[in-house]
TrEMBL record:
Gene: ubiC
Protein name, as recorded: Probable chorismate pyruvate-lyase
Catalysed reaction, written as an equation: chorismate = 4-hydroxybenzoate + pyruvate
Positions annotated to bind substrate: 80, 118, 170
Biological processes per GO annotation: pyruvate biosynthetic process; ubiquinone biosynthetic process
Function, in words: Removes the pyruvyl group from chorismate, with concomitant aromatization of the ring, to provide 4-hydroxybenzoate (4HB) for the ubiquinone pathway.
Length: 184
């Protein structure tokens, strides 16, 4: 899903900035569990977890991504979009980005991930530190057509290693909430 840079900025909120409390189960998925989402989805799916790559390319980053990565607007970066699936069904739409200059300087090869989980790579490398979890209701026009629904909750965090930042956004799809018995 190629995408041009968008000047739209979202109000990504840390848990302490939420205007009203969320359902405790939803709050847990968005903020409390700071471990690997891949691990959590694998457990929920009793091992039947998979990654379906949708798109990856060098593209201009969105304004909210540039701000989170602390790079100039319109910076080019590596953009990877995938579905994280349980039992072959998309449960999460994930968009991961890294600014080109910092990624090339780091030597990290995100282009060869294929159908492997980026979270697996980030959590297994102790050189990466994870920033604050933030959440918002993700704009439906940023989602693939197959899962374009208004009001879906998303979370994001930035993983840092030296100057490199890898911003990972995870949009929770309705089938996940059904599988996890969570009222979104």
């Amino acid at each position: 899903m190629p995408e041009r840079a968008v000047s739209e900025l979202l109000d990504w909120l840390s848990a302490d900035r939420l205007p009203c409390p969320l359902d405790p189960a939803l709050h847990d998925w968005l903020y409390v569990d700071k471990g690997s989402l891949t691990r959590r989805l694998t457990e929920l799916a009793a091992g039947a977890f998979s990654v379906i790559p949708l798109h990856q390319a060098w593209l201009p980053l969105r304004a909210d991504e540039c701000a989170a990565l602390d790079v100039p607007e319109q910076s080019e970066g590596w953009v990877r979009e995938v579905y994280l699936c349980g039992h072959g069904r998309p449960w999460v739409f994930a968009r991961s980005v890294a600014a080109r200059a910092q990624l090339e300087e780091s030597g990290l090869d995100l282009q060869s991930l294929g159908d492997r989980s980026l979270g697996e790579l980030l959590f297994s490398n102790p050189a990466f530190t994870r920033g604050t979890l933030e959440a918002c209701q993700y704009p439906s026009h940023w989602l693939p057509d197959a899962c374009r629904v208004d009001g879906l909750w998303a979370r994001r965090s930035c993983f840092r290693q030296n100057r490199l930042g890898v911003l990972v956004a995870e949009v929770f799809l309705p089938e996940l909430w059904q599988a996890a018995a969570v009222t979104s």
